[in-house]
């Protein structure tokens, strides 16, 4: 259902997940519509900075010295990580959303931004209530981060047009699957998220029951657009 929402900017943080250079250069990593997502994420980052909201960046950097290879994890020909490996310049955060002084950067070895171990405590130290989440890939690192955030007691605002996956359909189904169990959170687009970050009110989609979207192939786009 749609409901009006306002956010206390002192208790709101923006989390940007995995918007790194390999997402536009490594064939294994490139999502569809990355330029559009980067532009929307950059807009929200600018609004967050203008309004002194907390900003966190998460970057996937696979480092076998910190976390050994998981069972069945794919490898490169030399036995190292298949992508996003430590030391590759392509793991750098994209220039459009590059961190500035005072913004926390979390380097993770798994999907969730909470995997590294410090994010929950950092957010709670700031008394954060709402976590605005953007980035890639929707059904993977975004989904894992959203679920862990909710498990830690944070309300999640998922910005649907500031996230992406391998294809538009993968992204849309990823969002709908998250929506089905996004208890306590909300979903909106960049325009409404920017309004909320600026101190205004906006109408957002909020979950009011388990599994409201029993979608089929023909209904995915319509239901996604309704969020």
Question: Summary?
Answer:
With 227 residues, this protein is α/β, with parallel strands linked by helices. It has six helices and eight strands, in the order ββαββαβαβαβαβα. The strands form two sheets. It has a six-stranded parallel sheet with strand order 4-3-2-5-6-7, sandwiched between helices.
Describe the structure in your own words:
The chain contains six helices and eight strands, in the order E-E-H-E-E-H-E-H-E-H-E-H-E-H. It has 227 residues and is of the alpha/beta class. The protein has a single domain, classed as Isochorismatase-like (Rossmann fold, 3-Layer(aba) Sandwich), CATH 3.40.50.850. It has a six-stranded parallel beta sheet, sandwiched between helices. Helix 1 (34-50) links the parallel strand 2 (12-17) and strand 3 (54-60). The longest helix is centred in the N-terminal third of the chain and has 17 residues, at 34-50. It is globular. The termini are close together. The mean pLDDT is 96.
Number of domains: 1
Alpha-beta content class: alpha/beta
Distance between the termini: 8 Å
> How many separate helices?
6
Name the overall outline.
Answer: globular
The Cα radius of gyration reads 17 Å
Order of helical and strand elements? EEHEEHEHEHEHEH
Estimate what percentage of residues fall within beta strands.
15-25%
Q: Give helix % range.
A: 25-40%
Q: So, CATH architecture?
A: 3-Layer(aba) Sandwich
Kindly identify the CATH topology.
Rossmann fold
Number of strands: 8
CATH superfamily: Isochorismatase-like
| Strand line-up in the sheet with most strands | 4-3-2-5-6-7
Are there runs of 5+ residues with pLDDT below 50, and where?
none
Largest sheet, strands/sense/barrel: 6 strands, parallel
The CATH class label is: Alpha Beta
């Amino acid at each position: 259902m749609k409901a009006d929402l306002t956010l206390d900017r002192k208790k709101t943080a923006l989390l940007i997940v995995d918007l790194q250079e390999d997402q536009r250069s490594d064939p294994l990593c490139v999502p569809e519509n990355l330029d559009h997502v980067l532009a929307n994420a950059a807009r929200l980052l600018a609004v967050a900075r203008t309004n002194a909201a907390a900003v966190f960046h998460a970057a996937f950097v696979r480092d076998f010295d910190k976390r050994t290879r998981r069972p069945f994890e794919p490898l490169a020909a030399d036995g190292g990580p298949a992508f996003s490996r430590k030391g590759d310049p392509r793991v750098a955060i994209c220039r459009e959303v590059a961190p500035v002084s005072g913004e926390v950067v979390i380097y993770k070895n798994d999907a969730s931004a909470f995997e590294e171990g410090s994010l929950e405590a950092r957010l709670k130290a700031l008394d954060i209530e709402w976590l605005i989440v953007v980035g890639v890939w929707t059904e993977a690192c975004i989904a894992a981060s959203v679920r862990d955030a909710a498990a830690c007691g944070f309300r999640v605002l998922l910005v649907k047009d500031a996230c992406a996956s391998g294809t538009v359909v993968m992204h849309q189904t990823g969002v709908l699957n998250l929506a089905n169990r996004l208890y306590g959170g909300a979903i909106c687009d960049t325009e409404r998220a920017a309004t909320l970050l600026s101190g205004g009110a906006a109408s957002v989609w909020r979950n009011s029951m388990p599994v409201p979207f029993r979608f089929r192939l023909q209904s995915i786009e319509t239901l996604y657009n309704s969020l």
